Amino acid sequence: AVPAGESVGSVDVLADSRRRHVITQLQEVESCQLTALAEAVARKEIDSGARTVSQDRLRAVYVDLQRNHLPALVEAGLVQYADDVGHVTLGGSDEAVGRPLDAAEET
Prior knowledge:
The protein has helices at 8-13, 17-29, 34-45, 55-75, 94-106; strands at residues 31-33, 79-82, 87-90. By secondary structure, it is mainly α.
């Protein structure tokens, strides 16, 4: 169920685990460069004991975030992304972002 006052779009956009990883990472650091975000997301997706992420894997996550996930998160108002400098920032308060994130994780 979608909490009162929440848009269905925010919950729907967070149905994807990679997008939830982005929001979780940004809740920890508030803002970062896309390269650092891609590395953090890639690390969450692989074995937690792995110390390094292959360059191919990192490049694939970076491109996927840049082309698919960040535009959807920006449209939902959950993040801000300055493509010209590669900087990503959490788009709202932790509470405003946390509610749809919690709802998405429940589905």
